[in-house]
Amino acid sequence: MSPCRVAASGPRAQARRAWLWLLLVLASCRAPVESRPPRPPVEPVAAAPSRAAAPSRADHADDGGRAPDAESPRPSPPDIAIADPPSITTPSRPPTASPPYDRGQWPHWIDADGDCQDTRTEVLIAESEIAVEFSDARRCHVARGRWRCPYTDRVVTDPVELDVDHLVPLAYVHAHGGAGWDRARRTAYANALEDPDHLQAVLARANRAKGSRSFAQWLPEEPGTRCAYVEAWLRISERWGLVLDADEQRAAQADLAVCRDRGVPERVRDVGGRSPASADAPAPAPGSCCRVCTRGKPCGDACIAADRTCHAAPGCACARTPQ
Predict the structure, then answer these.
(1) What is the pLDDT of residues 4-58, one digit of tens each?
(2) Which residue among 22, 253, 295, 303 is buried most deeply as judged by most CB within 10 Å?
(3) 199 and 123 in contact (C-beta within 8 Å)?
(4) Mapping DSSP to helix (H, G, I), strand (E, B) and coil, where does residue 318 land?
């Protein structure tokens, strides 16, 4: 018998067979692990821009969600040179990104100092040309005064006929940065009394005609009045961190060029699409009536109650149909 056959039947051969059997068992256990696909290699990720390089809207919630232009700081109105127009950038946020305007989200009128006179009353008192009369002993509500509407140059004595208007309207502010403000900042804007042009007592019908349109859409024909209105608009926009779109930037530059040539008046006098009515204006010619007052009496271009005093210049309203 050969030595190999003896070795194959001996204890060493049995140990070898046992070892091979163990290897087969281990291989069968590892098979599922080895059959899984390998994990894909991790691709290198480009570094994200730093906050300093690209500030987020949340970093500037107090200025309407717009990052300041560090390279081209905007000059402060009214010291705006025509050669270097206001550097106000076009909003980068599409209009659909803002929630719809809700007037209820802009609280007004408030009584900031707790003296029972709210913001509207404070404006009426400040802008009356005479001492106002109050309707109550606490002097909380104004009953009469004398106001000259800055949009029409008409004189009003009954505060019921007046609106207190935001020169830069709330809806416009909402669309040009204010949508990102918190409630405290919206309240502060809606009731701001520091700038005398921010809130103005105007005829209600003039305020309705203006609506929420910008200075690029609604301006008087008189260039001098346009200058004052545009200047006030730019100053308020600058202070509150609002932005102008491309059309408004072009309109501002064109209007400021006119201002440089003709001078800037001290106060807005009319923003109604025509020159203010003159107290010395002639009466309308026969046949030129725009409104026939079958009740009451004519007053400028409108009809008023017969027992009321007319403070308007002669207009196109007539007491009867012209012959």
Answers:
(1) 444 445 555 565 566 556 555 454 444 443 443 443 443 433 333 333 333 333 3
(2) 303
(3) yes
(4) strand
Smallest CA-to-CA distance from 237 within 220, 216, 210, 254 is with 216
| Beta pairing, strands 317-318 & 291-292 | parallel
Contacts of 106 (CB under 8 A, 6+ apart): 170, 174, 186, 187, 189, 190
Task: Map residue 291 onto helix, strand or coil.
Answer: strand
Q: What mean pLDDT is predicted for residues 175-184?
A: 95
Give per-residue pLDDT as tens, 164-174.
999 999 999 99
Q: Which amino acid is at 184?
A: A
Residue pair 142/288 in contact (Cβ under 8 Å)? The answer is no
Q: Which residues of 294-309 are buried (b: 16+ CB within 10 A; e: fewer)?
A: eebebbbbbbbeeeee
Asked if residues 214 and 88 have their Cβ atoms less than 8 Å apart, the reply is no
pLDDT tens-digit series, residues 195-243 = 999 999 988 988 898 899 998 888 754 555 677 778 899 999 999 999 8
Dihedral (CA of 92, 97, 209, 120) sign: negative
253-256 own/partner pairs: CB under 8 Å, 24+ apart: 253/82, 253/85, 255/215, 255/219, 255/223, 255/226, 255/227, 255/230, 256/80, 256/82, 256/85, 256/227, 256/230
Whole-model pTM: value is 0.54
CA angle 154, 198, 185 (to 5 degrees): 150
% the chain with pLDDT above 90? 35
DSSP state of 150: T
Q: How far is CA 137 from CA 113, 114, 127, 130, 304, in A?
A: 19, 16, 21, 19, 30
Q: 64 is written with which tokens?
A: 């309407």
297 touches 310 (CB < 8 A):
yes
